[in-house]
Each structure stands twice: as C-alpha cells, then as structure tokens.
Amino acid sequence: MNDARTLTLDSTPNLTVLFARAAATSIGRGGPLQDVQVRHPRTWIRLGELAAYDKVCGFALRDTLPATYLHVLVFPLQATLMADRRFPLGMPGLVHVHNRIVQHRPVDAGEPLTLRSSARALRPHEKGAQIDLVGEVRVGHELVWEGVSTYLSRGASVPGEMAPAQHVAVDLGPDAPANAVWDVPGDMGRRYAAVSGDVDPMHLSSLTARAFGFPGALVQGMWTKAHALAAIEARLPDAYVVDVDFSEPLLLPSIVNFFVAQQDLGWDFAVRPAEGAGDHLRGTVRAL
Fold this sequence. Notes:
This protein is α+β, with helices and mostly antiparallel strands. The chain contains 6 helices and 11 strands.
C-alpha cells in the first residue's frame, strides 16, 4: 500500500534489483528531500540466515540478535528510499561515513518485528553532500532499536549552511599494543554481501571498485563494525549506544590491528592498518 508519505512493504525487497534500479536512475538526481517513510510490519527472523551472518561477522551462534544484524534488516528499507528516482542523491558511489546504533534492550530471534526507515538532514559537506538514513525496530509498540547511517555523496551540491564536522573521539593510548590482528581475506566483501544483501559493486571486485575511484575492492563498513562488536560481545551491556566513524576504506585483502580499551561507561575501539597511519574505523560503546 502506498500513499504520499508512507510505503508499506509486504515482503523484503530484492537488494540486487534495487541497486540496479538506482544505477539506472542516478543521473539527474537533485531537488528537495521527500518526506517518505518505508515500513515493513511483522518481520520474522530466519534462523539459518542469522547463523550465516553470525559466522561471517564472528558472533557467537545464539538466538539473541546482534545489534548490527538489525541494521541488516532495516537496510533494504533504506535502499528502497535511495533507489527511488525522487531521492536527491544518486545511490551509486554513496559512501557510508558514520553509523550510530541504539539498542534499548536485547532482541530475541523469535520476536515479531516492525521495521521503519526514513531520510533526513540533507546538508552540504566540504566534499559534497551528506544525508542521514534513519531506522527503527519495534516489538509491538515498544521501541527496541534505533539506527542512523550517514552517507556522503562526493561532488554533490545542495543548499544550506555547512555545519562543523562531528567525529568520534577515542582514548586508546598512543603506545598501546593491538588487542588482536585481523587477516581480512580478499573475498570478505562478497561473503558479507551474501549474508547482508549489501551488494554495492565497490565491495564485490577490484574492477567495479575502480569505477568508483577506489584502488581495489573494499569491505563494507558495517562488517568492520560488526566484527569489532563481536570481539567484545560478552562484555556488552544489555542497553547501549555504539557510534563509529568509517574513516579510511579497508581495502581487500588486508591485515589490520584491533584496539580496544575499557572506559568508565563502556568501551573505545579502533581498527587500524598493520602498516601505515590512520584509522579504518573509530568507535565508542556507552551504556544507556
């Protein structure tokens, strides 16, 4: 059912079809941000798909959903918004630069979920334009999860005043040794695409990634975030906020270092190249 403000889905849309539609309609995008919400009521978890996701990302196999898996469930709704030709930014080449997840309580795989997504805060950026894709998950009327994914469209131009950049700050100690070393294989982008549906071409092969200006295929930022949370999942509180910046692309294959330090109200963590400077990801977990 569709009206001017709400699109209600009867089933999960095919992300491959949405990416193809977005590529075909990306030229000539622009105009104001439409006030549209996508809704998918009565979503049920398929345990086999959850187990496959847990394995790829490093989570223990259990019926409690990782907070990042709920992002996977909401992402097709966000892609539905971005694939619409009325969406002001072309979806191909959009770069995920920040992600915030609020888990209000653990969610069990047996609970029926209602998913919602919308877009907000289209704004200029020094490198182009940014936009937030917002999601929420409810069990009945109870809000159990919220997420905000910030995307950058390089070279795009939108009206408005440029706000000061906001970055995640971490305190890990300048000489702290790595807590773990990750050997990320060259096919990780395809493996994560298979369990998440994120089939953006820049993650699938070096050839297609070069078409978007990258020197090679890069892993999805949400895999990096999920793998970091999996490393500390036994120490996560039931309710928390996790913020991450995706700073530098993690090209495949790569060897990277994982750093984590306990803070008063949670954890700081980062993923850094084994050789060279800069962060692939910086993040914080704070208890609610």
